[in-house]
Input
Amino acid sequence: MSQALFDAVKNGDLSQLNSALPGADVNAVGEGGMTPLMLAASLGHLDQVNALIGAGANVAARDEREYNALMCAVYNADLDRGFPDVVQALIDAGADIETKIFYDIRPLMLAAGAGEAGVVIVLLNAGVDPKARNEGGRTALMMVKDKDYVDVINLLHEAESMVELGEDGGGCGSRNAPNSNVVTFLKKDQH
Output
């Protein structure tokens, strides 16, 4: 019964998925420890992600690589892209925006390193810490500076400067809501 879920997700067929949901284990584990939700997130199938979440899929489940559905949506190396709308849906469903994989890589770091500006905006608006560091002491901004993703570099520079303004009392941000200024900046910048 669970294989039908995986087949529906692979086919990108929402009606097939809805037919397979009754009686199926929405948290079934497939190849590599992936759940149907992780697979749908990695493929950018927003409708399927929402259907699986509505059916009780666990947004915190992890595969053998320690990826959860959020990390799968942030960047899919095989497709060379991330899915901002899916990232937002997972955040709305309670996904941990500061989740870590190997070497303490967080979603913002993965998105920045891949040049996924849309995902970076969603994560910053959700309140991620732009100054968080991995095990090597590197921030998302430090990681993206090795690449030519100018739009992501500019977003992260602005986010870090807004956090610094809030910490120094020079802005209207605070330590408890470090990205309140970033949200305003990013929303203005999207027009």
